[in-house]
Amino acid sequence: MQVSLDTDTMVLEDMPLDEGYASEKITAKDFLGEEVHFAGQNGKTQIIVSTPYLSQDNYDEFNAIFQNKDLEMEDVEKYLVLSSKEDVKVAFDMPVVIDDEEMFGDEFGVRISDAPLAGKLTKALFIISKDGAIFYEEVPTDLKMRFNEDKIYQKTMAALECYTGKGCH
Asked: Are the beta carbons of 161 and 85 closer than 8 angstroms?
């Protein structure tokens, strides 16, 4: 899969996970170095966003997703995943995890292989249902393209409603 940023076109190392696939539990570190476990089956709906960098340019978009009052429920967990702490260029108020062991990039197929962002995670959003399945995914081919916030809300609500404890796919 190709992604672009301004005049640069890059390729992902692998194909991103698609809807319906079971996600594996990921271990990463939060910004303070504490271990964080996310994805996989944990009994909660999860919104996982990855990006090659967190700057003033994209902060407002991510903040709108992470601070959405309609998605502030105890059954919804949210994670912003970056490749390294150096990818953060602005102060933030959201749950940031660092994929320092590249487990997320490998498992979800969202690592960029070409310069200028080689080794970084591409911009992607995954909604994981309570049973650990990918319920919705959005991987823009243009890294400046905004996520569809209405669709994120709709798909998150659908993931919450369809879970019966026996899977929803």
From this structure: no
Query: How many domains would you assign to the chain?
Result: 1
- First CA to last CA distance, the chain: 25
Strand partners, 37: 27
Residue 169 lies in a domain: no
- Which position has the token pair 């993931």? 159
Domain that holds residue 115: 2-162
165 pLDDT band, cuts 50/70/90, is low
Q: Please tell me the predicted confidence (pLDDT) of residue 168.
A: 46
Q: At 111, list the tokens.
A: 């690592």
Three-class DSSP labels, 117-169: CCCCECCEEEEECCCCEEEEEECCCECCCCCCHHHHHHHHHHHHHHCCCCCCC
Domain-embedded: residue 57:
yes
At CB < 8 A and 24+ separation, what contacts does 68-72 make?
Answer: 68/149, 68/153, 70/153, 71/47, 71/153, 71/156
More confident residue, 35 or 73: 35
What CATH code is carried by the domain that includes residue 74?
3.40.30.10
**What's the pLDDT tens digit per position in 98-132?**
999 999 999 999 999 999 999 999 999 999 999 99
